[in-house]
Amino acid sequence: MEAEGLVTSSRGVGTMVRAQTPLKRIGISRYDKAKWRDGDEVAFIADRVVSGRAYQRGEQTQSVSLVEAPAAVAEAHGLPEGAQVYARARLVKEGEQPTHTLTSYYRPEHVEGTRIVDPTPGPAGRGGGFRVLYDAGYEIDHMKERIFARVPTSDEVKLPAGEPVVELHRTTYTADGTVVEFAVGVHAASWFAWEYEFKVPDSAQDGEQK
């Protein structure tokens, strides 16, 4: 069964059944402004809606702290390494099973005094973090995502044991290119199917139109 991918096993933990139908981790449409600006469908809920899965807002917890920026965070925000940033760390579960973690890093001047730095468990109010940024005058315009698979580290024990993880780096920009969020997500590989739909660019045609 392990060879067929139906179970996973590890020393000291035993054998666990893998998720049979992975969640669709939708790409572009999960960030549709109508979901979080005009409604209350934060990104992890959007994934569950499109996957036909039940959800509760309490399946996302959070902790907020002021930390020294790690190298990748500092580079993304254009800050010196070790500069103070807010880290909003979430553990997301499906039912009782943790599926991924996501930590968003913000410059203090962008989020000080907002719901993003409120440590109350759960999403940062109606519409989540993107709505908070929008209300503060930082409307998100475009993103860059990088994903790669790796072996989990010893401190990632909250995720299902004995399987690889998919790490996501997301940089979120306003229209003028200001970085307002850099996020690092760690996803249990067997729990997600990554799905993207987008218009295929035609740079030659775009050049002719100019």
Fold and architecture overview:
- GO terms for molecular function: DNA binding.
- This is GntR family transcriptional regulator.
- It contains six helices and ten strands.
- The protein has about 210 residues and is α+β, with helices and mostly antiparallel strands.
- The chain has a single domain, classed as Chorismate lyase, CATH 3.40.1410.10.
- The longest helix is centred in the N-terminal third of the chain and has 8 residues, at about 45-50.
- The chain is globular.
pLDDT below 50 for ≥5 consecutive residues: which ranges? 1-6
Biggest sheet statistics: 6 strands, antiparallel
Number of helices: 6
What is the quaternary state of this protein?
single chain
Question: Mean pLDDT, rounded to whole units?
Answer: 84
Strand order of the largest sheet: 4-5-6-9-8-7
Q: In the CATH scheme, what's the topology name? A: Chorismate lyase
How many angstroms does the end-to-end distance come to? 57 Å
Instruction: Determine Rg (CA atoms, Å).
Output: 18 Å
**Number of DSSP E strands:** 10
- Structural category is alpha+beta
- Beta-strand residue percentage: 35-45%
CATH homologous superfamily heading? Chorismate lyase-like
**What is the N-to-C succession of helices and strands?**
EEEHHEHEEHHEEEEH
Which range best describes the helical content: under 10%, 10-25%, 25-40%, 40-55%, 55-70% or over 70%?
10-25%
Shape: globular
| Tally of structural domains | 1
Q: CATH first level: which class?
A: Alpha Beta
CATH architectural category:
3-Layer(aba) Sandwich
InterPro entries: Bact_HTH_transcr_reg (IPR050679), Chorismate_lyase_/UTRA_dom_sf (IPR028978), UTRA (IPR011663)
Protein name: GntR family transcriptional regulator
GO molecular function, one term: DNA binding
Organism: Streptomyces katrae
